UniProtKB/TrEMBL annotation:
Domain Glycoside hydrolase family 65 central catalytic: 2-151
Pfam families: Glyco_hydro_65m
UniProtKB keywords: Glycosyltransferase, Hydrolase, Transferase
UniProt gene name: kojP_2
UniProt enzyme class: transferase
Gene3D superfamilies: 1.50.10.10
Gene Ontology terms describing biological process: carbohydrate metabolic process
The name this protein goes by in its record: Glycosyl hydrolase
PANTHER family: GLYCOSYL HYDROLASE-RELATED (PTHR11051), PROTEIN-GLUCOSYLGALACTOSYLHYDROXYLYSINE GLUCOSIDASE (PTHR11051:SF8)
GO molecular function, one term: kojibiose phosphorylase activity
Organismal lineage: Bacteria, Pseudomonadati, Pseudomonadota, Gammaproteobacteria, Enterobacterales
Length: 166
């Protein structure tokens, strides 16, 4: 949604990002409940900002059991998607007020999430147990998109941070 609005009506794009900012406390709480720091945004949310993804979906025709929905527990690329959207909005609009207030708060909390979400394996960091944006491969380690977006975010906080904060 954001790319279309960013280039057709940036005020709508800003509103979409402000929705995330307004729900930042809930995302911080969700991260904390799952043992991480920063902000873990809901996969599906309503006006309240709370997770709305159902725990179970349709009945599996092979097993006859209700199918568990894993999106809320593992589609963490959404956190990086939000940070990417903040960066894209700021680069496109140059909205200093947004980046200084809402944008930096979002970038800081999403960066904290990725730092706490990473797992050290030997001499490197990995991101385990995720669902990538294709939504077909569940609970994988080191999904290319998720890992790349998480790593990309690390320097973004410093790059867009007002010099007075450094």
């Amino acid at each position: 949604m954001l790319p279309f609005h960013l280039f057709s009506d940036p005020t709508v794009a800003r509103s979409l990002l402000r929705y995330r900012w307004h729900n930042l406390p809930g995302a911080q709480e969700k991260a904390r409940r799952n043992g991480w720091q920063g902000a873990l945004f809901p996969w599906e949310s309503a006006r309240s900002g709370e997770e709305e993804t159902p725990e179970f979906a349709a009945i599996n025709i092979r097993t006859g059991l209700r199918q568990k929905v894993a999106s809320a527990q593992a589609e963490h690329h959404l956190v990086a998607d939000i940070a990417w959207a903040v960066i894209q909005y700021w680069q496109t609009t140059g909205d200093e007020s947004f980046i200084a207030h809402e944008g930096m708060a979002l970038l800081l909390e999403t960066a904290k999430f990725w730092i706490s979400r990473a797992v050290r394996v030997n001499d490197r960091l990995e991101i385990h147990d995720v669902i990538g944006p294709d939504e077909y491969t569940e609970h994988v380690n080191n999904n290319a998109f998720t890992s790349y977006m998480g790593v990309l975010q690390r320097p973004a906080g410093a790059e867009y941070c007002p010099p007075v904060w450094l």
